[in-house]
Amino acid sequence: MIQENVRKILQELPEGVELVGAAKTRTTEEIEEAIDAGLRIVGHNYVQEAEASFHALGSRAKWHMIGHLQSNKAKKAVEIFDMIETVDSMKLAKA
User: Helices marked H in the chain — which ranges?
Assistant: First the structure.
């Protein structure tokens, strides 16, 4: 089901638009299934959830932080994510 949905969405996207698959509460196996179907960017809301998937799947996808980032998690987030889309303060940007 996941692979079918991802393939359908990817076929319908206009040229130049990239799909970010939100992985909130999804297992590493489900994320891997989406990657196998062609998903190239995985978005996570939580650093802790992303950590396990990142270590298992690593360079098979790009990893984006799409949720609120706490300053005490910033260092770990920089180690995991290719992009952090949710920097909401100068304090966090400097962390």
Answer: 2-12, 28-36, 47-57, 74-80, 90-94
Measuring CA to CA, which residue among 29, 42, 33 is closest to residue 5? Answer: 33
Token pair in block for residue 15:
């040229």
pTM flag (> 0.70): yes
pLDDT single digits (tens) 31-78: 999 999 999 999 999 999 999 999 999 999 999 999 999 999 999 999
Does the structural domain 2-94 have CATH classification 3.40.50.720? no
What is the number of other CB atoms lying within 10 angstroms of the CB of residue 10? 15
Structure tokens at 42: 């995985």
22: which 2 tokens?
């939100």
